[in-house]
Specification:
By secondary structure, the protein is of the alpha+beta class. 23% of the residues lie in helices and 21% in strands. It has four domains: 136 residues, no CATH class; 139 residues, Serine Protease, Human Cytomegalovirus Protease, Chain A (Alpha-Beta Barrel); 258 residues, phage-related protein like fold (Alpha-Beta Complex), CATH 3.90.1690; 40 residues, no CATH class.
């Protein structure tokens, strides 16, 4: 290559194919869309790009948008951060060039991450377009987006790098550039498909670029305002100058004529005119020599006239026949806005750029994302563009809507729920205090207060015999003594009789519970197991004692026990708890059946009727202070809903803070150990649905303790376990068969 002097560099005299472009870091990046693999080199999904059988990637339809983490990042979301404008193959894969959007607020952060080597790439396509063969080879993968990501699915993917771009602008359709031509500039340039070549010496701010005349544009090739270097402050003259410098004055003139119906004048710069047939440069005027401003002539005047006509068309009155609302007129409703119906989508888009350039010449509002065009105009433009896309008549515009059908590959972003991508770093926090379950208050104290006898069976005895008061002597009606008997003693005036005696035997039964825990649990648990188990055992024992008093039934015959009326109770070391003794319900339902009644629909009389069943003519219930009502929770709530209770008309209910304290003069208690039953007052295996009311006279019951609840702890070294066992020996008996009564089959 011939030597080039500094003067030649700045005056473009060395070779007509040499021209100067200023070099500034503007967010131009390079990386790979994909890298080649094979069956032994796959990505994390088991797929690969085959260099010899490349898939259809639609790379001839660039540009395509760039995203950050496929739109899944919480901060950036689905914001487009740039675009891919060029792609080509090398020995590693499909390489690309693209530009980051400098207008987004995260531009500097993304550039910093690229400079730190933190970002690679991941390609995305539409789900219905993706296709793979049975070996995992990509067959179809049209590029819909390219994302910068910190966790690519391909572990070999090179990191993205920044390049010193040509003011961040490049032609999308330049798929290839040429190598250095070492021949004399007067000879024909040899062209190959290699990479673009630039030469930079020292700290010089200019780069010498050698390019051949580009290929003819395809129908889909297009220039953007970014590529032209158009900024909001540019007027029509500046736009025309940059367009002419990019594609030549003749082509620029033809383009403006097709858009506006006018024919702008050619450029005045003879040097640029001479170079136009040879070069297609994006960056004319970027040497230290300033660009020459086109002269005002007849063609530009005609162009201005066309623009004025377009402006008037946009701001024209609505078509004839449309109702117009003017100030001071009556209110008009249901008016259809047709002001822009006469404009096409292309005309409105072009008009938008004109209005923005005139009303925001310095681009102040544009940088803030604020439109100075009327909202009605913006809405109409959006509707027309959408209509064109839906008709599939605007393939170029369609690319801007592709994010609606976005398809990406999963698990490229680390997350707290992704196996192998963050889940393993997430811990589970456990509180070090137990959240206790709800336990209903027990009725033990109320039973004792109402007179239930509690006896301690001393050591050396297995049971307790309680003497009973029985029948007394017979009383007779007698007359006065008037004589003596054969022994000469006064005659007997009354027949003698005796007091009878009786007793009641109270036997006890043992019940127990056992549990084990390992040494590892003791060492590793955040809740110390031993004290927590002891705490729960104490509370459980109180509930189980209440359960036995109410539900105990020792009958093991099939389909007989009141707690399993349709089954056979379990016996042995895991025998059913209720087999320990006979309780309140067993007496009323089985032992003295006359003390049970079918209630039906719940009413206040269901309580009163029970009192009459306790003893002859209800004698055992004559003192209401000696009677306790025991009900299940559903029956209690149904009682609260009775009209007699709500209106308090009867006056036989004692209410306090919305709860029933007494009913018919006797204390009402709710028990968590009293369950719903079937129509006969007994419990089937599947549970019952009907309520029960139990009337108990506690002073006619005796409870005996042979052993209170005792807990033993044993450490077993051979098995490295700890055993906790609790036992109690308890008994219960009624003085007679009138100590309780029950109403059952209550609809609650």
């Amino acid at each position: 290559m011939p030597d080039i002097t500094a003067e030649q560099v700045h005056t473009k005299q060395a070779d007509p194919r040499l021209y100067i472009r200023s070099v500034t870091p503007e967010g131009e990046i390079e990386g790979y869309v994909c890298i080649f693999g094979d069956p032994q080199h796959r990505d994390s999904y088991g797929t690969f790009f085959d260099k010899n059988k490349m898939p259809d990637m639609a790379l001839d339809y660039l540009p395509q948008p760039m995203y950050y983490e496929h739109g899944l990042d919480e901060s950036l979301g689905k914001m487009r951060i740039g675009k891919v404008v060029q792609a080509w193959a090398d020995n590693i894969g499909i390489k690309f060039r693209g530009f980051l959007d400098k207008s987004i607020e995260y531009f500097d952060q993304i550039v910093d991450q690229i400079n730190q080597g933190l970002l690679a790439t991941s390609s995305g396509t539409a789900g219905h377009l993706a296709e793979f063969d049975d070996q995992g080879r990509f067959v179809s993968w049209p590029l819909v987006d390219l994302s910068l990501t910190s966790s690519p699915s391909e572990s070999r993917m090179p990191m993205v790098s920044l390049v010193r771009s040509e003011d961040g602008r490049m032609f999308a359709e330049f798929q290839q550039s040429v190598s250095i031509d070492n021949t004399d500039p007067t000879e024909d340039a040899s062209i190959d498909g290699g990479s673009a070549v630039s030469e930079r010496k020292g700290e010089d701010v200019a780069t010498i670029v050698i390019e051949s005349q580009p290929k003819q544009r395809s129908k889909r090739s297009m220039l953007t305002v970014e590529q032209l270097g158009v900024v909001p402050g540019d007027g029509i003259d500046a736009v025309f100058a940059k367009l002419a410098d990019a594609i030549g004055p003749d082509a620029a003139k033809a383009f403006m004529a097709s858009q506006l119906g006018g024919a702008p004048a050619p450029m005045d710069d003879p040097e640029d005119q001479a170079e136009a047939p040879e070069m297609l440069s994006v960056d004319a005027g970027r040497s230290k020599k300033p660009a020459t401003k086109p002269a005002e002539n007849a063609d530009i005047t005609a162009m201005r006239a066309e623009l004025d006509a377009m402006r008037k068309k946009i701001e024209a009155e609505p078509p004839a026949g449309q109702t117009t609302v003017r100030a001071g007129t009556a209110k008009v409703s249901n008016v259809i806005d047709m002001r822009y119906d006469h404009l096409s989508a292309a005309e409105m888009a072009f008009g938008y750029n004109i209005l923005m350039a005139e009303r925001d010449p310095k681009g102040v509002y544009a940088k803030q994302g604020v439109s100075v065009v009327k909202e009605e105009y913006n809405r109409a433009l959006a509707l027309k563009v959408e209509a064109e896309v839906l008709k599939n008549t605007a393939p170029v515009l369609e690319s801007s809507f592709r994010s609606k059908w976005h398809y990406t590959r999963a698990n490229e972003v680390m997350g707290s729920t992704i196996t192998g991508g963050g889940l393993e770093w997430i811990g589970v926090y456990y509180e070090n205090a137990i959240w206790e379950k709800i336990r209903q208050a027990t009725i033990w104290e109320s039973l004792v207060s109402a007179g239930m006898t509690v006896r301690e069976i001393p050591r050396g005895y297995a049971s307790d015999t309680i003497p009973l008061e029985s029948t007394g002597a017979t009383w007779y009606s007698v007359g006065a003594t008037t004589g003596v008997d054969s022994t000469l003693n006064p005659a007997v005036a009354v027949t003698s009789s005796r007091y009878t005696t009786a007793n009641k035997s109270l036997t006890v039964t043992k019940v127990g519970v056992a549990t084990f825990f390992t040494g590892e649990l003791d060492e590793d648990s955040i809740i110390p197991p031993l004290p927590e188990i002891q705490r729960q055992l104490l509370l459980d024992s109180q509930e189980k004692i209440e359960y036995l008093l109410i539900n105990g039934d020792t009958d093991t015959t099939a389909s007989t026990n009141i707690n399993l009326i349709d089954g056979t109770p379990t016996t042995g070391t895991n025998g059913s708890l209720y087999l320990a003794l006979n309780g309140f319900l067993k007496l009323a339902l089985v032992t003295t059946t006359a003390n049970s009644r079918d209630g039906g629909a719940l009413a206040t009389d269901d309580y009163l009727a029970l009192l009459k069943l306790m003893g002859t003519n209800g004698v055992n219930a004559t003192d209401p202070n000696k009677i306790l009502w025991l009900v299940d929770n559903p029956t209690y709530f149904a009682t609260l809903a009775l009209n007699d209770v709500k209106t308090r008309e009867v006056g036989l209910f004692t209410l306090e803070n919305g709860t029933i304290q007494q009913l018919w003069g006797s204390k009402l208690l709710r028990s968590g150990q009293m369950a719903l039953a079937n129509g006969s007052g007994k419990i089937p295996a599947a549970g019952g649905t009907l309520g029960r009311i139990l009337a108990v006279r506690p002073d006619q019951w005796a409870l005996g303790w042979k052993r209170h609840v005792s807990t033993e702890i044993e450490r077993r070294a051979l098995s490295d376990t700890t055993t906790i066992v609790s036992y109690m020996r308890i008994g219960l008996t009624a003085r007679d068969g009138e100590a309780s009564a029950v109403s059952y089959n209550l609809s609650v």
